[in-house]
Known about the structure:
Layout: H1 2-18, H2 37-53, H3 60-67, H4 71-75, H5 81-104, H6 110-122, H7 136-146, H8 148-151, H9 156-161, H10 166-182, H11 189-209, H12 220-236
Helix pairs in contact: 2-3, 2-7, 5-6, 5-10, 6-10, 6-12, 10-11, 11-12
Amino acid sequence: MLLYLHANKLTRLEKLFSSIKIQVNEKLFIKDPDSSQLGKKIVEHSIYLIDEIGFEEFTFKKLGVRIGSPESTIYRYFENKHMLLVYITSWYWTWLEYRLVFSTNNISSPEERLKRAIAIVTEPVKQDSNYSHINEVKLNRIIISESLKAYFTKEVDEANKEGFYMVYKSIVQRISEMVLDISPKFKHPHTLISTVVEGAHQQKYFSEHLPSLTDVGNNDDKIVSFFTNLVFSMLKNG
Length: 238
């Protein structure tokens, strides 16, 4: 009976999740790519192309060839490729925040809630059928290898004022509050959680490209376990 009720709860949450439109800061685009099939096609294939050739080699000209549309058409949606990168990373963090909220909703134990939250930001991403034009697995690879380029720029302070990184900061804030629910006097919750998020990305990247820099190998469960243990050890030691 408990399993049945749990399955019903998950089904209701999944149905609710499927009805949600991912809202991205409107300052990141000229025309909302979600408003047309062409816009969705631009986003879809930009993810495929960046994943294949990397952000440095990615251009709107190459994307135009990929989708069979003039380069000028893409500029009707995005000012430049940097804004497109910030857009897709912002989409990813918004999508992940919804997952975080749904996955930790109604978990009464603060410890279990924090463990689930850590897992959400460190475990492998699976493709979400609710958004057919977005390949979340490929987008996750871009987040791991390219997302630093979205805010490691000379214009980062201005972009921050415009709210371009608001959702990423919101995720860190949510999990930091979970940390304080367990250990109210802990002095560095944001430092700890941002280290977990970025550290998990580094470990995944190292495991694929620089394996001598990590001990996790190809075992994603080790990454989740390592950062879960790290957080709770830090809280235990104050």
